[in-house]
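Aim 2 progress update. The chain analyzed this quarter is reproduced below.
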Amino acid sequence: MGRISGLDAPLLQTGRTFIPDLAMIHSRLDAPLLQTGRTFIPDLAMIHSRLDAPLLQTGRTFIPDLAMIYSELDAHSFGIGPTSMQSLIKPHSMINRHAESQVLTALNDTRIVALAGPRQSGKTTLVHKIAKDQGMSFVTLDDHLSRHFANYDPAGFLQQHGRAVIDEIQRAPELFLELKKNVDEMPQPGRFLITGSVDLFKRTISPDSLAGRVEAITLLPFSQSEIEQIQQPEFLEHAFSENFPAYLETGRTLKLVERIVTGGYPEVFTRKTSARRRVWFQEYVRALATRDVTDISLVLKTQELMRLLDHAATAAGQLVNLSRIASQLGVDSKTVDQWLALFEQMFVIKRVPAWHRNTSKRLVKAPKLHFLDSGLLAALSRTELDDIRTDRARLGSLLEGFVYSELHKQAAQSSEPTYISHYRDKDKVEVDFVIERMGKIVGIEVKAAVSVKPGDFSGLNRLKNAADDAFVCGIVLHDGENILRAGDKMLAMPVNRLWL
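Predicted structure tokens:
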């Protein structure tokens, strides 16, 4: 089941065909329902005129061109029937987002709540729901007229909408100072819920301008626990208390490779073939480089930006080497650094800093590059399900990126400040991820094998010695089927323990 966002009407699956929820369309379009025998169908001429969508003839019956309706109204959230790719999401259900409770809590005591995340991560769907539940007006600045009004008369715009949800606010930079003035004059909590497809507090908004008035919440693409429609995972809580059994048969991670190459963007789950998913990712990257980046920068070299993402995918999971990428693109290192910062601001990539102690001179301090969605990384790497089935070696960097994405989402949802870094010393001994919370440290190593070897813990043991008393435990995540204690403060477990 999908959802037509402009109508807020779900699509119902019948066999291989999706049809609209006609009662919902009727209520939103005010189009009469016509009775044919025991079946009610909408007045298709009315729908056609309101949507400007062609009607397709099947026998003697005309039905709306659902693909046209779907694409023109830009669906945002999905519950999908049980086909091969869509089986990752349970049939006929909407996906609850863990961030919703964070937003609602913040609205109770904060004047402005900012929900930021990459485009197509489900922000609009979530705030639509919250606006309806909370009785707030909704306006999107993707709309040209609304954007023009907001930029040229920000005071009048805010007065007109009152307590409101303002979607894609980075497209109207003139609003920000007026927001500050507005909430200072009327300091009630829950005045505005704003969304942005960029990190609003890096360049778009000065952190000082709204200090004490705003709470920022991140919404990334679906996490695995959201896809499974289960409660928010407690992996980090268990890790920081070393609360795992010494041995437990859990089974291997179901559909692990499929989960990795799919990623979490909601729209991807509507694409039934790898070819269609590949087209979506290609268009997504093109839109990032040609449209979205212009909201925050004057960069005009769109082809070079797209090539940068290709090179970044090749370097995923490795130390950032600005000079090498610069030579490949024919630009200088400073430009590459600035362009990477733009994609970080759009929640596409993340330069993960190196963990170090001031007392240690043997640790490498260069960051590593990771993508925030493994499906996008797989698409840019030209890696599909069959490629990994025939060449298991291609799984390694993708699995590491997949684990990083899950850890990042859990850290963003944590009530305690949680930081992710990586460990590498001068001997090139590494730990993929170092998680820090309240002065304590957990090490995470990722292996694509179905079993672990003593050597897989070498980096974690080196980190243990470096962190001393701050070290809680080291965990090797693998593609096997058992939780196993492998020594003092050392454990191995399947990847699915991240969310199950």
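Residues 225-498 form one domain. The chain has 20 helices and 21 strands. These observations will guide the mutagenesis experiments scheduled for the next reporting period.
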